[in-house]
Structures are given as structure tokens and as C-alpha cells.
Design brief:
2 copies of one chain form a homodimer. The first copy, chain A, is an alpha/beta fold. The first copy, chain A, contains 14 helices and 16 strands. In chain A, α2 crosses α7, α5 runs parallel beside α6 and α10 packs across α11. Chains A, B: It catalyses: L-glutamate 5-semialdehyde + phosphate + NADP(+) = L-glutamyl 5-phosphate + NADPH + H(+).
């Protein structure tokens, strides 16, 4: 790890902010062609510089090993040729997305004679604070460029060299499109004080997006003087209703838990209506057991599945991110909605039912960023939703909720077209 | 002024928050008919209780006079029969607006087979902190009820009795529609500590909307641990371009300054292209003089209008809210955009031009919540924009920008409809 010889961190961060603000004005005006040119140039440069990127990554990996980072962290940190391919493809996909900036909607004449509409505009300067995965450097930069925002990237100290190598490709790409190099800046120090300063510069940064573990996000939310697009827990539920098609219920409950264990849209608690518990639980339990999923149940679940361990109160509030599932038998839709309201994290919750009225009520009454009928919670994802790519999943309600793509990096201003109109 | 005998302000505020959260869940589910019923019942009750409201208001006015409040403040505080009429009409207008809650948009099939769309949902609990004008109690409550949110209202101590009298009508209206009375609560103490506690209860309040002077808003922004929908300065500009129709320019520049002086969408600085300054300024200056507007000019303005006083650097950054106007002669569109970027408050700015390309550039490049072509800045208003009513004007970029109506009090969640779909 390289620690740059930056003496005055505060002055350094202010300078990054000042440069970002200036670049943001240029990027906001940049045309679609120039932004796409930059993205394709970045993709080309990443391809060309594979050797340098991998060499930098090897240095990070060696330092990480020497520091005793665990295997999961080292895996997330590693850049293979396949991962560089994915990174390049990601940047190209963002280039292929429609440009959200400048889109005018709802332009209508008003009784006064003026036309009033909305124009989509960049937010300005985004600050992204992330851990380990160096591909975020390219993904986040691409989304910010396309949405006309400047960005300051602060990656983890463990991926410092990798991030710098990727950032050099990005800046070369911006320059080749005659866009401001300061549109994408990385914090060139691993000093942790930089984060505290970064989240407290509302004059230079319009939105902070933390990507990482709960500890990071909680620290940033606590210290921030800038709005934060937060993603906290993903305690997702599937509720199997009395009127569920049990084949669909089986497939969804299995997929939502076992398709991947470590993702925020993985089901952590299965709710089963008492009317179908006996019919579905033994078959599901066998399938989970085969996948190696540990089951924890409420007393009524254990009456059907006596071999599983009891769930404690803490289980209902836990995001396992692991092959563990808590199961609760509930008395109908209201009890399921109540459980989700009390224990859920407002991330993603699904009902399995063939009953129209219950599906309709679940959709309306469950207050989560994604609410689903007869689909696996694992679909809660920017790519699956057609956003093209996501910068994160917001569990906040303001500004953006759920997977956040290009649109979440923009805002809308009002535009008014008149012909000399005055107010009477 | 009544100061309630509340001993433990913190416990009291927590209890308000807890009740609001419970009511918010009920209000989020409430149907359009029930919400409209409540609003009509509130309007009826306000009409019925005119005498009690005016009596309470007289007590506030007497206490205010005794405390030496200035005439402008006492005027804002006063409730006349005409103002009560307007308040009642405002509530009825909100009842007539379409219900935003539950609206589903962009529901499309994805290649995976699922349908993905968005459903508009309430934010939850809104906290509104306001000064003097008691009509805000009814306006804000109506908008929150219609948008399915619970609200905690904290009015100024000078309007305490008036606000309580209005709040009683609102709660009676909610109850007659079988909606939770706690959907609209007022803080029943004038203790200033209540504000500090209120803005730091993210577990109970989802959004704080301050309505009042700059001092209030700055204090709240500083102390808040809850997102704040801010409205800071309105330093609005009109730029008269070289290719302006001078008749339109005259009408707009006069209206934007003189139609009302104390509003945030009033023009504070007039920018005039050097090419038309000689042609328009003498005529405009005469019209302003007739209205009693004090003019302050840059050196080039004073070369044309030698009788006016010089503008200092501070003038370009001042929201006068008074019959004062600063005038600057600029070298074309770029200089105008640069002046607005440097000195404006991103509230509302207008260009007067017949040139298509310049209008197009101004709309795109000026980063304000409202950007106008050939229209008076005074149009920047929720009613004029067709939002029906506004809870405030946001000069923030996140979540809502410009006049905020019902939609700004809501968010969108993703909904996913499947048929047993699982992710592969």
C-alpha cells in the first residue's frame, strides 16, 4: 500500500472538492456523444492496461495477505482477467444506456398561458466511499460520467493500488473525449481522516454513496453533513399464503434463499400460512437440507419439523448473509404483513399467492423498497429491473428507493416556457 | 400564550413520534374516499368554528402586541374571515386533487419474464416547523393527509392558540372519516427545546420541512439528524438577452420585481446584455422609479443611469425581499450564466430572448430549480405549476426541487409481478 505524502488532509480534500465542482459544471453541459466517447475510451484503456492493472492488484493482494486479510476479503479484492472483462463490459453497457440528462417530461400548458415541464439534470458532485472490490471504481465512474456528475472516489486502503491503476485509465478516457479529467478523482491517500472530511463538505459534494459493510455505512451516516444514499440491512421475507400455488412457492422459497447466500436480496425469514405449513414445509426443509441450509423455526414450525433448532427473537431481526434461514408459521396475511413491518428492513419482500385480493393488499401495504408477487426476492437488482446498472440499493425513502441506476444520480428542475408572460 | 405543563419534553416528543408512526401505517393504507371525506369534514369544521378560531387568534394577537412584535409579523399572524375562507378553500382544493398514493407507473415486462414497475407511496411521518402564519396548520395538514402521511406540526409560539384551535378542527375531521386522530398532531408546548428534539428523531420522523426565515432553516439544517427539505435564499435573476423582444423584456422585468416584493421568487438582480442596455434601461428605470423601487447598478449601468447608486459586491449576493433591485450590464449569454452560477441561489432564473439557441442553452445550463424563457420569475409557485398546492419550495437537489406538492411528499417503491419466477 502506498501512502501518499499528503500533509494537510483537510486542504487536500477541499481542493479535490473544488476541482470536482468545476468539472461538474462542464460535465452537466457535456453532450451524449462526448460522454459515450469517454466511456468507450475508458473501456479501451482498461483493456490495453490489463497487465498494469493486474500488477497493481497483485501488490494489493500481497500486502493484504501480509496483513492477514481473510480469504473472503482477498477474493473480493482480486482482479482476474475474467473480472476485468466484466468491468470493461460494464462500462460499455453504461455507454449503451440512454442519456437521462436533459430529458424533458410533462411539458404542459397552464391556464395562465405558460408551459411548465421538468428537465432531468445531474446532481452535481457525488462522493463514493467503498470497500475492497476495485471494480466499483470503474462501475461508479461510468455511471457518474453518463449521468453528467463529477465523482470523488474513496476506495478501501486494501485496494489502493488497483483503484489508482483503474482511475488512470478513466482519466485518460475522459481526456480523450475532451471532458474534464477532474470529473473522476480518487482520494490519493489511505488516511482514514479523509472519509470524515469528505462526508462533511456540503459545499463541494451533493450526495455521498457508501458501499460496504454496515459498520462503514453507520459511521458515515453518523458523521455526514451531506445527504447519504444509504443501504442498511436486507432482511427479506417470502410469505407463502394460504392460496399459494405450492409448486411456485417451493421454487421461489428455494431460490430466494439458496441462489446466493451473501447478497442483500436473499431471503432471511420464510413466513408460511398455517393452512399450508404442513403441506409445504417438510418438502422445503428437505431441499434446504440438501443445500446445507441451517433452519431455525418458531414453535409451530418445529411442530412440523421437530429436527430443526428453535428460532430466538433475535433471529427475526438478523440478516444472516449465510446458509441460515428462520421460518415462522403465521395466521394469514395480516400476521405476515405485521411481522414484516416489525422485523423487516424495508428492502425486499414477496408474497406467493394466487389470490388476487391478497396480492393487491400485499403490494399496497408492505412498505419495502421492492414488493413482489410470485417472484424470488433475488430479482431485486438494477440489471434485473432494467436500470442497466446500479450504483447501489437504497433502503431510504427519500430521493431514491430500491436499486439506484442512472436516474437516481439525477434530479429534475422545472422549466417554464412563455411568450412574455407576467403574473397577475 | 399558553405554555402547557409538559415536564419531560423529550419523553413527550418521543410519544408524539411513536403515535405518528402508528398513525402513518393506517394513513398509508387509507383509501382515497376516506382521505377526501376527512378533508371535506375539516373544511366544514373550520367553517363552523370560525368564532373559536378568531377568538384564539385574537388572544395570540394581543399577546404578540404586548410582546412588541412588529407590524409585519402581526399581519402575518392575523386570521380574518377572508383568510379563513382561503384556508377552507385550500383544504377543499387538496381534496379535489388526484390521490398520488398507489399510482403504478412504468410497469413493463423484463426479459426474465417478471413485470417491474413503480408504485407511489407515502414517506411516512413528516415534521413541519413553521413561523407565524397559522394557515400553514391547515394547508400542511391537508397535503399530508392526502398524500397518506402522518404529520407533526410545530408552529411558532406567537400563533400557539390559533394553531391549536385549527388543529382541533383537523382532528375532528380525521375522526369523522374514521382515520387516526394522531395522523395530525401539534406540539402542545412553546418550549424551544421541542424543535431540537423533533429534528433529531429519525426513528419517528422521515422528513423535516421548515417554513420560515433563514435563521430558522439554518438552525434546523445544522441540528437535524433527519433529512430536511430546505428552502434557503431566493436570489432570482432575469437576463435580458441581445435578441430579446424589448416589450416582453419590459413587462417581465417589471413584473418579476414589482408584482410582490417579499416573495422568494421575486427578481433581485436584473442582468442586461450590453447590446440592449441603452435601449431598455432608461425606460425600465422610469417604471421602477414610479413604483418606488430603489436601483443599484454596476458601473456600466450607471453610465446609462447616472442617477442610481452604485451596487457593491454584496448586492449581487443579497436577497432584498424589498423594493430594491441591483442591475448589471453583462457581455452576452455566457457572462449572464456565469453571474447566475456565481451569485444565484439556484431558485428561479429567467432569460428573455427570441433566439432559439440561446433559450435552449439557458434552459440546459442554468442549474436552478426553475429555469424560464420569456416568463416572469413570479410564476415559480405550486399553484401556477399545477401542483395544486405547495408545502414549500425546495432549493435542494435531492428528492424534490422547486415547488413541492403532493408528489414531493411521496416516494416510489418497486413492485414486481411474477408467476413463480426464480433467478437463474
Amino acid at each position: 500500500m502506498i501512502d501518499s505524502p499528503i500533509q494537510d488532509i483537510s486542504a487536500y480534500m477541499q481542493e479535490l472538492g473544488r476541482r470536482a465542482r468545476a468539472a461538474a459544471r462542464e460535465l452537466a453541459r457535456a453532450g451524449t456523444a462526448a460522454k459515450n466517447h469517454a466511456l468507450h475510451a475508458i473501456a479501451g484503456r482498461l483493456d490495453q492496461q490489463r497487465a498494469a492493472i493486474i500488477e497493481a492488484n497483485q501488490r494489493d493482494l500481497a500486502a493484504g495477505s501480509a496483513q492477514g486479510l481473510d480469504a473472503a476479503l482477498l477474493d473480493r479484492l482480486e482482479l482476474t482477467q475474467v473480472r476485468i472483462d466484466a468491468m470493461i463490459e460494464g462500462v460499455q453497457q453504461v455507454a449503451a444506456l440512454p442519456d437521462p440528462v436533459g430529458a424533458i417530461t410533462d411539458l404542459n400548458y397552464r391556464p395562465s398561458g405558460i408551459q411548465v415541464g421538468r428537465m432531468r439534470v445531474p446532481l452535481g458532485v457525488i462522493g463514493i466511499i467503498y470497500e475492497s472490490r476495485p471494480n466499483v471504481t470503474a462501475d461508479a465512474a461510468a455511471l457518474c460520467i453518463k449521468s453528467g456528475n463529477a465523482v470523488i472516489l474513496r476506495g478501501g486502503s486494501e485496494s489502493f493500488a488497483s483503484n489508482q491503476a483503474i482511475a488512470r485509465c478513466i482519466q485518460a478516457g475522459l481526456m480523450s473525449a475532451k471532458l474534464p479529467e477532474d470529473g473522476v478523482q480518487t482520494v490519493a491517500t489511505t488516511d482514514r481522516a479523509a472519509v470524515g472530511i469528505m462526508v462533511a463538505m456540503p459545499e463541494w459534494i451533493d450526495l455521498i454513496i457508501p458501499r460496504g459493510g454496515k459498520g462503514l455505512i453507520e459511521r458515515i451516516s453518523r458523521e455526514a453533513r451531506v445527504p447519504v444514499l444509504k443501504h442498511l440491512d436486507g432482511i427479506c421475507h417470502v410469505y407463502i399464503d394460504e392460496y399459494a400455488d405450492l409448486e411456485k412457492a417451493f421454487a421461489i422459497a428455494l431460490n430466494a434463499k439458496t441462489q446466493r447466500y451473501g447478497t442483500c436480496n436473499t431471503m432471511e425469514t420464510l413466513l408460511v400460512d398455517v393452512a399450508v405449513a404442513q403441506a409445504i414445509l417438510p418438502r422445503l426443509a428437505a431441499a434446504y437440507r440438501e443445500k446445507g441450509v441451517e433452519l431455525r423455526g418458531c414453535p409451530r414450525t418445529r411442530a412440523i419439523l421437530p429436527e430443526i433448532i428453535p428460532a430466538t427473537d433475535a433471529d427475526w431481526d438478523t440478516e444472516y448473509l449465510a446458509p441460515i434461514l428462520s421460518i415462522r408459521v403465521v395466521d394469514g396475511l395480516d400476521a405476515a404483513i405485521e411481522h414484516i413491518a416489525r422485523h423487516g428492513s424495508a428492502h425486499t419482500d414477496a408474497i406467493v399467492t394466487e389470490d388476487y385480493g391478497r396480492a393487491r393488499r400485499f403490494l399496497r401495504e408492505v412498505d419495502s423498497s421492492s414488493v413482489m408477487v410470485n417472484a424470488s426476492t433475488r430479482f431485486a437488482d438494477g440489471f434485473e429491473y432494467g436500470l442497466g446498472a446500479e450504483i447501489g440499493i437504497s433502503t431510504d425513502k427519500l430521493h431514491a428507493r430500491g436499486p439506484v441506476g442512472l436516474e437516481g444520480l439525477t434530479s429534475q428542475k422545472f422549466i417554464v416556457l412563455g411568450n412574455g408572460d407576467v403574473r397577475v
